[in-house]
Specification:
This protein has 12 helices and 19 strands. It has 482 residues and is of the alpha+beta class. The strands form 4 sheets. It has an 8-stranded mixed β-sheet with strand order 1-13-12-7-6-5-4-18, with no helix packed on it. The longest helix is centred in the last third of the chain and has 38 residues. It is globular, with a radius of gyration of 26 Å.
Length: 482
């Protein structure tokens, strides 16, 4: 009977693998659609971008993408860089406040299996690694499932890794030129329990200023969007940390990526990252055993209907784009898509414009209409392929292809079930024959992906950690920067 259970287990693993492959193919097909939301990596071509002088003035950047322009919003847009307190409110707590100790997440008290020491980030300088969250984390109204943790005391929250990791889209409890590779006691470790993700920079020291002491601090991301900065050991005032070699920032930032304005069409494929909001806290309050708690405020993006979008007292300046079925004020990560689908004009309307009262006889035809997104006329002129996809013949072809795919999957599953039954019968009737335990024994549950990193030379840029060969626990051989 045990042999039969093993066979069933193997079949379940095979089904899971089949589902994973199908999901990858489906995701690949989606990434090839001609119209993409703003920030889609499939539409990002690093070699087509140039980096401006104001970008280089910011300091370190990240590998994995090319250079892009980074700038604040133009004067004709409504947001400014100074915090408008329209996205987050926050409180600060000092060493004598009871909340300080309550907010601190003591990773030492957790079970060893709940805390991971990142073997690469703990042994390198100016590196960044992707980490998948076990929950959707709301950041400026956008739900994120993947973040990038950097050795320099911050988390990059962007979807596209550009050279300037430190410029925008960050959660920075203390961004500075930390070098965890200096000491074996310096680590970058994190924990994720499904409701709370915590990353802690533990006993890290500043590059070339190691004798001034070790810093210990953490950032905690709560499932409800609350962000907490905790500081345990701060050996010197933040104001005295040199920002020449690396930016020094404390706070939050978000931005959107969009094409340059029509007056700068000399390079039409060039994109600009516009920082539309930033939270900067008083660094003088960062001392031993202090904390900051950021509470997210409602955003237009959370409204899922026209009525809520236009009548909610929780938000202001929201407009409803019926084409995208989205509520927005036009200043968020979806701005390029908002413009492409002519949403600024649609947002001037009312809900009655999109839900007209129809005669009873026309209700059936209304129910059969297709409310899916349709780009503006300008977009259609530039993308005839998308226009062709709206024709009836193409729809019929798509339905036929989908039917064929579904039929193929069903046939494969039927065949798989038949083989499963034969395997179970064979194993039960031949108990002396070794079942596929060999494959099971050879299967390794590598929950910690093996990783390596690229040597970027002696310049102030971050290199993103890549998947690669097998990693030794808590140790990595790295070529040091001269």
């Amino acid at each position: 009977m045990d042999m039969g259970l093993c066979a069933v287990l193997l079949i379940c693993l095979s089904l899971a693998e089949l589902g994973r492959v199908w999901a990858q193919e489906h995701e690949g097909a989606l990434s090839r659609t001609p119209l993409r939301a703003d920030g889609d990596p499939s539409g990002f071509h690093p070699h087509e971008h140039k980096e401006t002088s104001n970008t280089q003035a910011e300091g370190g950047g990240g590998g994995g993408g090319g250079g892009v322009d980074i700038s604040p919003l133009p004067d004709d847009m409504t947001r400014i860089l100074e915090d408008t307190k329209s996205y987050y409110t926050w409180q600060s707590f000092g060493p004598t406040d009871r909340q300080t100790e309550d907010l601190w997440v003591d990773l030492n008290t957790l079970h060893k299996s709940q805390v991971r020491i990142h073997g690469i980030l703990s042994n390198t300088h100016r590196q960044a690694a992707r980490v998948a969250l076990s929950f959707d984390f709301p950041f400026y109204g956008h739900y994120l499932r993947q973040i990038i943790v950097a050795t320099g005391g911050f988390i990059f929250m962007g979807e596209i890794t550009h050279r300037m990791l430190t410029a925008t889209q960050y959660v920075a409890p203390l961004m500075a030129n930390f070098d965890p590779s200096f000491s074996k006691n310096s680590t970058v470790r994190y924990s994720d329990n499904g409701n709370l993700f915590v990353v802690q920079w533990d006993k890290v020291r500043l590059k070339d200023r190691e004798a001034e002491g070790a810093f210990t601090f953490q950032a905690a991301l709560h499932r409800n969007g609350t962000i907490v900065f905790n500081y345990r050991d701060i050996p010197l005032p933040v104001e005295k940390i040199n920002s020449t070699e690396h930016p020094v920032k404390v706070g939050l930032s978000d931005a959107f990526m969009a094409f340059l304005s029509s007056s700068q069409l000399s390079d039409p494929k060039r994109r600009t990252i516009y920082e539309y909001h930033r939270v900067e806290i008083d660094t003088a309050k960062i001392v031993n055993r202090s904390a900051f708690e950021f509470t997210p405020l409602p955003t237009c993006l959370q409204h899922t209907s026209c009525d809520l979008c236009l009548t909610s007292n929780l938000t202001t300046d929201c407009g409803w784009c019926n084409t995208l079925q989205r509520c927005s004020d036009g200043i968020d990560r979806h701005r390029q898509e908002w413009l492409d689908y002519n949403c600024p004009e649609e947002a001037k309307g009312t809900c009655e414009d999109y839900n007209p009262i129809l005669p009873e006889g026309s209700m059936s035809s209304f129910n059969h209409s297709s409310p899916g997104p349709t780009p503006s006329s300008a977009v259609l002129e530039d993308q005839p392929v998308t226009s062709d996809l709206q024709t009836g013949s193409s729809k019929h072809k798509g339905i036929t292809e989908n039917t064929a795919i579904i039929a193929g999957v069903v046939a494969a599953l039927v065949l798989l079930v038949a083989l499963t039954l034969l395997a179970v019968y064979y194993i039960n009737t031949h108990p002396t024959v070794a079942p596929p335990f060999y494959l099971m024994q050879r299967h390794t549950n590598n929950y910690w992906p093996s990783m390596k990193f690229r040597n970027q030379g002696c310049h102030s840029s971050y290199a993103e950690v890549e998947l690669g060969g097998h990693e030794k626990e808590g140790f990595i051989e790295a070529e040091q920067c001269c």
